[in-house]
Amino acid sequence: MLPVTPYAYPAAHKLPGGARNPRDGAHYPRGDAGNARGGAPDRTRGIHNLPGPILLAAGIVSIALTLTAAGYGELVWSALCGLTGALCLHFGISLTVVEQRRIKAAKAQDTALRSDI
Predict the structure, then answer these.
(1) Which of 24, 26, 49, 56 could be cross-linked to 92 through a Cys-Cys bond (beta carbons 3.0 to 4.6 Å apart)?
(2) Is 86 helix (H, G, I), strand (E, B) or coil?
């Protein structure tokens, strides 16, 4: 006869933090799950993409400064602001796209895991 371990009966296995196995219909405790309704943790929430929008805003401001400096005839400042604006917009858009792909992949994985239960 095989030894009885907590893993032999998944419904009896206790997870850390007082949560129980999601296969037995139990909910995760509120606060640890990241989901206000209780239920499975939502990995798509949280503040992960702050650098993307910050860089986008800085790029827009820098482009506005480029136009202002060009209007005053300051070619060096307009070139510098144009370069920083282009770089900030490029990296801001790139980070935002990467974060959206991460969220999409996490949602697909969560859907696959929940349909497996």
Answers:
(1) 56
(2) helix
